[in-house]
TrEMBL record:
Residues 324-340, 346-355 have a biased composition (Basic and acidic residues). It comes from the Eukaryota. This is HNH nuclease domain-containing protein. Residues 295-305 have a biased composition (Low complexity). InterPro entries: HNH_nuc (IPR003615). Pfam families: HNH_2. Residues 275-355 are annotated as: Disordered.
Amino acid sequence: MAGRDPNLDFEAEFQKLVTLMRACFDREDPELKPTYRDCRSWAKSFTSNVRRNMASRDNNGWLGDNGEGDLTERFELVQKIRDTILNHEDIKEEDDMIEILQTKEVWAHLMVLSLPRLRTFLAEVQTNDDLIDTLDHAFPEMNSLVLLFRGPAEEWVKTGTISRSNAERIATARRDLGVCAFTGHLRGEKCHILPFWTLNRPRCSKALNAARAVFGQERSKILRKKLVNPQTNIVDTSRNMITLHPMLHKFWDHGLFGLEPVTLLYEEDKREELAIAGPSTPSKVASERPDEESGAPGSSRSARSGTKRGGDSSQITPSKKSKTTSEGKTKGKGKERDVELPQETKPTKEDGERARKAIGIRIRLHWLRRTMGLTPDNLPTNLAELWRTLSPWDDDYVVHDKDARPVDDGQIIDIFDTADAKAPDFDILQLQFDVFRIQALSGRADPIIYAPDWYYDDDGELVSDPVPGKEEAVREHEAREAREIQEAREAMQA
């Protein structure tokens, strides 16, 4: 990951490999001769162009909707929204409200919204005074979403005990064959996307309630139905589970990467997988490398028939024309994306007649570098400025697949339903992806700093003090922030 070793004699190493390979193929013992599988594995390794430095990409990476290029409109919309809020008559004279609403966390919440939702939200803050008055409470409460995915379980009050479903865990294991979806290792761990312990915590519901102002009514309604409604939630089902290598699981818990839901999959996509991979079990987790330079799937893996969704979960079935177009690629800056219909487009009767039942999902992994040295006064206004604030890549954050290659940024996998287990849910994955991007864009602070200044002790009694460990975490966070801001200023002056 650190680049070429200057002391490595590549010509000498090449000759060693040639000698070893020839000796291997010259073996006479049939039990020791290389097999077809050996040859395929070697060829795959030699043709790989996996980056050793996940910070080397020069495109928009994990920001932007399908088809976005340099994110110009996104940055402009976010700036207009912030200006509208901060200059509102009810806000501009209130120092405490300005202090809350100008933070990089608020900026990050806006940066990950879909373009259609950003456009709508701008119109809402420009015309709805009542909405403006709620935002100084909504945005801080939305920071609790980070705690939902990354915070310690013990700080949340329970409303009863809920047992895990062993049947769902077994069904998920069968769906994924017990194999990590991204590495192919057999040591896969069954992971909840939204942690199981959030299921019976009231503050989970409060965080989603607060997000309604920003996410929009429709998306919030869908998320509440799937995550907090006692009768309809799918938190402890296969739709909220994925199998990961233990090290990937650990890095995911730390928010070091996010899983982007790319598109829903249909029966013809599964037939294509079987044609590519050959006979398999009914539970098929298809894992392939993307085009290793672009981070996009190869032509045989493109989402030709997938249903796209925007960030507020409105579902669109592509028309014939759009489906034909999506077989090609729309290139952003250094990154290929599938073409997405505008969210305002209404499905035609013909589209409805062709509507099919989704039986799987395509997921893309993104390693997430965090920002450094951001203040309300130097928030990025374009992609170049954003890239200058991102931290260098830490060489310790690497996980190797079964072929001993690093799990690459932009790697694509497909997961299909089985008889007993559904594929991961699009909306839950999207929330996870948004939350992890929000935390990366705002500096990836210890999530406990977003905890409330009260908690329940072991006896269930309310304690009107900060959660244990929060004050220390806040002090460490402020010290790190001050150091990084000073380093950023010195770098600009150098």
